[in-house]
């Protein structure tokens, strides 16, 4: 079931207000209507999906490391890191890339909560990308998307 266009428009306005208010990021609305945000070495994608008839979920996702050697030590490290996260979690996608994801119900999220979601994902990426790369290899998503590392 789809949410009303009015609700989606209201959520998008709140998200864009939040993003414009954050002075340390760059963002753009992608062709598919989702958002790409750059903060530090993090490239974050915000996607909105309906959740029932009256709610939408906002998923903040960033690829932390692309092309790392996935082994049991890395998996144990990611589980250990997840146990220290207040919001969000590390995961591995079908291509064996490491991502960090934070999901919240966007319909009633405050501007503060929306900003904190973006900041939490960016902080996790900045805190862990080099630790992972130094031990298990790979590249940052920033380097994959833009061809160089900002660090």
The average pLDDT score comes to 94
Number of continuous helical runs: 4
Overall structural class, as computed from helix and strand content, comes to: alpha+beta
**Could you tell me how far the N terminus lies from the C terminus, measured between alpha carbons in angstroms?**
44 Å
H/E series, N to C? HEEEEHEEHEH
Sequence stretches where pLDDT stays below 50 over 5 or more residues: none
Largest sheet: 7 strands, antiparallel
List the helices and strands and how they pair.
Elements (H helix, E strand, L loop, with lengths): L4 H17 L4 E4 L5 E5 L2 E10 L3 E12 L5 H11 L6 E4 L5 E8 L5 H26 L2 E2 H6 L5
Antiparallel strand pairs: 1-2, 2-3, 3-4, 4-6, 4-7, 5-6
Task: Characterize the structure shown.
The protein is an alpha+beta fold and 151 residues long. The chain contains four helices and seven strands. Strands 1, 2, 3, 4, 5, 6 and 7 form a seven-stranded antiparallel beta sheet that branches. Strand 3 (42-51) and strand 4 (55-66) form a beta hairpin. The mean pLDDT is 94.
